[in-house]
Amino acid sequence: MMVHNMVFDMGRVMLQFDPLFISGHFVPPEDAGEFAKKVFGSACWDSLDRGTITLPQAREIMRRTLPERLLPNLDKALGEWFQYVPPVEGMDSLVRELKAAGYGIYLLTNANFQFHQYQDTVPAWSCFDGLLVSSDYKLLKPEPAIYRALTDKYRLEPSECLFIDDRPENVAGAQAVGMEGIVFTDPGNLRREFVRQGVFSNLSE
C-alpha cells in the first residue's frame, strides 16, 4: 500500500459531535435526550447534511415533533449548536505530524452549510489541502459518489488515499471505491494503527 493522502471525517474524529452534550446547553437535563433525538438525530438533520432542505424548512418540521415546552429552545440551538463541539484531543498534533511528513491532508464530512461558519475550529485546519462538505454536493457518506467527488475534485488516486471515519459503514464506502480505510476510535489507537500498518513508521508511537 502506497498512501500519499489522508482523508479525515470530521464528527467524532476531528470534532466531538455529541448531540446529548450539545442539547444539554439548550434544554434542561431531563429533556436533553428527547431534544437530541428530535433535532440532531432526526431525518431533518440528515436532509440538512445532504443540502436538500434549508434551515428554516428544517426548523418548521422539527417544531411539529417537539413538545411545546421545548419550542422556545429550538432557534437558539439551531443557530449556536456548533459552539459546543470541542476538538478531539490529540488530533491537532497528529495531523500536523502527518503534514510535516509530506502527506496530503483532506476532510470529507457529512455536514450542513453551517460548517463554513466553524470550519476553522477543526484541529490543524491550516494543514488541510482540501475538503468536501456533503451539503455542498447534495451527497452523503457512504454513497460512492461522495468519495469520487473528493478524488475528482483534487485529482487524487483512490488507492493512494487512506480514509479515517468513526462509522464502519463510511469506511466500507471508501474501500468500495478503492481507498484504504481505518475505523477511528481515538487518536492513540489511530497512531498505533498507522505504525502497525508500516505506512507511517516515521511517526512516533
Task: Provide a brief overview of the structure.
The protein is of the alpha/beta class. It has helices at residues 19-23, 32-40, 43-50, 55-63, 71-80, 91-100, 115-118, 134-137, 144-154, 168-176, 187-197, and strands spanning 5-8, 104-109, 130-133, 161-165, 180-183.
What would your notes on this structure say?
The chain is α/β, with parallel strands linked by helices and 205 residues long. It contains eleven helices and five strands, in the order E-H-H-H-H-H-H-E-H-E-H-H-E-H-E-H. The protein has helices spanning 19-23, 32-40, 43-50, 55-63, 71-80, 91-100, 115-118, 134-137, 144-154, 168-176, 187-197, and strands at 5-8, 104-109, 130-133, 161-165, 180-183. It has a five-stranded parallel β-sheet with strand order 3-2-1-4-5. Helix 10 (168-176) links the parallel strand 4 (161-165) and strand 5 (180-183). Helix 3 (43-50) packs antiparallel against helix 4 and helix 4 (55-63) packs antiparallel against helix 5. The longest helix is centred in the C-terminal third of the chain and has 11 residues, at 144-154. 34% of the residues are buried. The model has no long low-confidence stretch (mean pLDDT 95).
